[in-house]
Design a protein that fits this description.
Elements (H helix, E strand, L loop, with lengths): L1 H8 L10 E3 L2 E3 L5 H7 L9 E5 L5 H12 L4 H5 L3 H4 L9 H6 L5 E4 L7 H5 L4 E6 L2 H14 L10 H9 L8 H9 L7 E5 H6 L1 H11 L6 H10 L2 H5 L31 H15 L13
Parallel strand pairs: 3-4, 3-5, 5-6
Antiparallel strand pairs: 1-2
Helix pairs in contact: 1-9, 12-13
């Protein structure tokens, strides 16, 4: 990997056009410093809910589930408007005027770390659903996003070169471990709900019910079935209100496979050993465990 390190250290691959650093973390130009400062001052209520994730962790999937829980499981109404309108992306400056004009209860998406919302979380002025996915599959999905989405260049490099960026904390939104552990510090808060992507994938009914309970919504068995069917990956890939993002590579969809364990087709033996060592060091004592392979 020495050659890869040289490539990235020379800066040929490690810069997304217009990226900038704020508090040691890289952001896209759509999230400028002034906007990050504004987010720190946004006012929430206890009825508002953040869908908080590291990028490519099942965000859109959970946005749609949460929206359907909140709108009385009106699938047709949900299809009538893009998810970007129904659950706006807080991090993007262009959405700011619309978000500040919204009345509670608001549903918002963010990839930011919790220190932006810390006071309001501690004061129970906002709820958060934190969606977590095993980091190996996150990296592979993020790699494909970098390769296909124009905001990232698109990224011209290989998987090996992308892996080096991740090692050096040079990805947009920074390091997965730092991000997840920052949110995990709030696990005892009654207004913060943690959901693992793999659990939702393997046991959708049970986890939809848990989400609804956290949101103080009562769902019938038929409503749970309706949500599970409407948010299956096959259904969502055909739904333009959620599979909305046009990529540079027409072969790629915003919603890809969603499988557990796809990382095994990308990680080399050396990369896997490095990652496992780092995982053991960073996650030790956290009590967090992830599913890296599916029995399906």
């Amino acid at each position: 990997m020495d050659n890869v390190s040289n490539l990235t250290s020379e800066g040929r691959l490690n810069k997304v056009p217009g990226q900038h650093e704020y508090d040691g973390i890289l952001y896209l130009p759509t999230t400028p410093r002034s906007h990050l400062e504004s987010i720190k001052n946004v006012r929430f209520t206890s009825e508002d809910l953040l869908v908080a994730t590291f990028s490519k962790s099942g965000t859109t999937w959970c946005q749609e589930i949460i929206y359907l829980i909140s709108n009385g499981v009106n699938v047709e109404e949900a299809k009538s408007r893009p998810i970007t309108e129904r659950v706006p992306f807080l991090d993007v400056e262009i959405n700011w005027a619309g978000i500040t004009a919204l009345k509670s209860p608001k549903l918002l998406k963010t990839h930011l770390r919790p220190h932006f919302f810390q006071t309001q979380i501690l004061d129970n002025r906002v709820k958060a659903v934190v969606v977590m996915r095993n980091p190996k599959d996150v990296l592979v999905s993020f790699y494909h996003f970098y390769k296909s989405y124009h905001m990232f260049g698109p990224f011209p490099g290989t998987w090996n070169e992308f892996f080096e960026l991740a090692k050096n904390k040079q990805l947009i939104y920074g390091d997965w471990f730092d991000h997840i552990l920052a949110w995990w510090a709030f696990r005892s808060r009654p207004n913060v709900f943690f959901l693992k992507y793999e659990d939702l994938k393997m046991h959708p009914r049970a986890n939809v019910a848990k989400l609804a309970q956290f949101m103080n919504r009562d769902l019938t068995e038929d409503e749970i079935t309706k949500i599970v069917e409407a948010t299956s990956f096959n259904t969502m890939k055909k739904n333009p209100s959620v599979n909305y993002l046009k990529t540079e590579d027409k072969r790629n969809n915003f919603i890809r496979k969603g499988a557990i364990g796809g990382w095994k087709n990308y990680f080399t033996v050396a990369q896997n050993e490095y990652f496992d060592d780092r995982y053991e060091i960073k996650m030790k004592g956290s009590g967090l465990e992830f599913t890296f392979e599916s029995n399906e």
